[in-house]
Design brief:
The protein folds into 2 domains: about 1-80 and about 195-220, Glutaredoxin (3-Layer(aba) Sandwich), CATH 3.40.30; about 90-190, Up-down Bundle (Glutathione S-transferase Yfyf (Class Pi), Chain A, domain 2). Helix 1 (about 10-20) links the parallel strand 1 and strand 2 (about 25-30). Strands 4-3-1-2-5 form a 5-stranded mixed β-sheet. Residues about 210-220 and about 225-235 have low confidence and may be disordered. It is about 45% helix and about 10% strand. Helix 4 packs antiparallel against helix 5. The chain is of the alpha/beta class and about 240 residues long. The radius of gyration is 17 Å and the shape is globular. The structure holds glutathione. Glutathione (GSH) binds near residues 49, 50, 52 and 64. Glutathione binds near residues 10, 49 and 100.
Length: about 240
Amino acid sequence: MIRLHHCPQTRSMRSLWLLHELGVDFELQVYPFDKTLREEPYRSLNPTGRVPTLEIDGVVLTESGAIAQYLCESFPEAGLGRSLRDADYAQWLNWVHFAETISQHCAALTQQHVALYEDWMRSPTIMQLEARRLAKTLATVEQGLADRYLLSAFSAADIGAGQAVYMAQHFVPLDPFPKVSAWFARLQARPAFQRALPGDLSAMGGNLVSGAGLRGGAAPGCASPGIFLNRRSWDR
Ligand SMILES: N[C@@H](CCC(=O)N[C@@H](CS)C(=O)NCC(=O)O)C(=O)O
């Protein structure tokens, strides 16, 4: 049994996109991006109260990079992972985890732009610094893009980094990075990417087991300044 615990517009989109690319059966439990994640029964699965969480045959994983590795190793026939025997294994692994280097800046910027809801709480210095550091990570992707994908063919590395760029585009323009822009357009055209976007929950696929308090379609997420968090719901 595979069950993904997911909030739209967050890092769990990586895992959802990958599950769709793998074409496996899974259940999808969708939450609002608020303190529901800190409550039981979710807290027992993921004590830090974050998404994603993946349950797979009695195993629980709570890091998107680890989830990517575990799923790719569980379904090697899909060809989205690499193993130690492959010449590009180190590159693959590095890109799968580089996604988190991109995402941490997106998370910091989301905190500044969205979660800190009073002007006095925000720091223009941190906003500028984080945006510059985020742009540097995009420059790294620009430099690393071999051709159409990060490796010689589409893989979970593109999913991890691609989802991070999906978040990053809210904060930095992609225009200065032509290879990133073309690659990201290619990724966005994939049906599995589109099924992982927020919107009609029925289009998300998987076997949707529960909205767990979700009200009215996609929940607000952690990198969508256009969609406001129920900010006070995080106060504690
Ligand atoms: N390193 C973790 C980070 C997970 C994470 O921080 N997820 C965010 C959503 S993008 C979250 O759940 N945040 C809730 C919070 O910070 O309280 C991963 O890659 O899965």
